[in-house]
Amino acid sequence: MSDKHINRLFEALTPNTEHKEKMFQNLLVQSQNENKKQREFTPVKRWRPAILCAILIGCLTSTALAAAYMGLDEAFLKFLKPLNQEQAQYLSNGAYVINKQVENENGTLTIKQAIGDSNTTYILMDFTAPKGTVLNAAGYRFEVPHITYDGAGRDKFSRSYGFKVLDDGNPNDNKISLIMSIGTDNSIAGKTFDFSVENLQAINPLTKNFETVIPGYWGTMLKLDFKDTSSLYQIDQDITLYGYKAVLKTISISPISITLKTGSNYLKEIFNYTLSLEKKVGKDESGHFPITINYKDGTSNLLNGSINMDFIEGEMITTYSFGNVINDKEITSVVFFDKEFPIKD
């Protein structure tokens, strides 16, 4: 979808003020008509304002609850680039509205929405610097992102972070929009965390290194109550990774990413072998575990992903995030190390 189509889609999914006022006016007219019919019954008349109030409160509560899941931010739509309106609605139903602000003298962090699957979570946020500051670098990130289950720091589950700056249409003001990506071993949907970021950094155009431009700490308790959009496929088949025995346990697929979980007693040997390849060809280990995704229309897609190896548990988790969302229902099979695994709905 182009940005023009996404703008139209966003308008279609979002009720405007006129629609809201019409709904409210209809409620009032309906209540007034019922009042006229029931005037001869004193008890009903006495309770009518209370009933109307309860109806309105119920409507407002339902609207707020629906908004927490149905209102996918326009910036998220442009980042995800859904293929069609049906997929956009599907993603909207899984998104969770946060709208939480954390501020100090150096700036305000607004955490807006979250969406994710079994192993990848995206958080949409805005950062606003003090007036007079211009945030127009090509790239930004926070130096120290941190997310844990409890204040003591136990249950650290996150294994990778990333930041992407979005085009907000105003490159020379004091505000930027960011997507924070979090890679985890398991889904974090529905959980509450201690969340914090430190030191906004910008990329230096000359050195290509990130440097701190706004120091500071922004932290809060954060609930990520998005809906997991992934489907889990149990595989449990033997495979061979660079000559070493392994078992492909599961494949998890969503419109956002695909994750493979592999078990092996030879992970250290596999890891050392990829390091030797890296020295020869100059690639990191993620480039040594590619997958091919085959689709119903006969096309295919070759992907490299991020790798996490747990030598103690003997488990390797490989996550491949898509540039734009895909139609996961069109996937027919996944090829991993020359072995094809059919994907059936």
UniProtKB/TrEMBL annotation:
It comes from the Bacteria. The chain crosses the membrane at residues 49-72. The keyword Transmembrane helix applies. Keywords: Membrane, Transmembrane, Transmembrane helix. This is DUF4179 domain-containing protein.
